[in-house]
Amino acid sequence: MSSELTHFNAQGQAHMVDVGNKTSTKRIAIACGSIRMQANTLEKILQGNHKKGDVLGIARIAGIMASKRTADLIPLCHPLALTHVDVVLTHQTLPPIITCTVTTETLGQTGVEMEALTAVQITLLTIYDMCKAVDKGMIMENIRLLHKSGGKSGNWAAPT
Fold first, then answer.
1. What CDD domains does the record tag this protein with (predicted)?
2. Binding site annotation covers 131?
């Protein structure tokens, strides 16, 4: 993998990377993150009786929508035609945590890592937004890329 920062030209100015000559390949990225909360907050979410509605369902949709809007949020990110987005939410009770894992896919000339990471962040922020009235101390953490495949640089996996 290159050690060069690709979003800067020879004069040191920020620019959008030219991917026009790159080969289209199947690109996959998997990212994850979690949100810690009070036990009673998790209980309200899981029981589905939260005042604002289905927290996990709404957060899942928010993540999918965010993945499709990544280029609108990150200035030098290419707009992509995603072929698949999967947002999976799991939980554990001790400590009370919801984990979000997102898989994004496309057939294209540039990767989908930013789309996966954006979807994780917005999914977790949506959970925070919907539950902040009962738990302002929630902590979003460990947001990271787990895996990417496709393209010239090939496969990459986070160290375990």
1. MoaC_PE (cd01420)
2. no
CA distances from 10 to 4, 17, 77 (A): 11, 12, 19
pLDDT at 108: 86
Cβ atoms of 142 and 155 within 8 Å: the answer is no
* Per-10-residue mean pLDDT, the chain, length 160: 59 60 86 98 86 89 97 89 97 97 93 96 98 96 97 90
All structural domains of the chain, each given as residue ranges with its CATH number in brackets, are 34-154 (3.30.70.640)
The verdict on whether residue 113 carries a ligand-binding annotation is no
Annotated catalytic residue, options 54, 72, 86, 129: 129
86 is annotated as an active-site residue: no
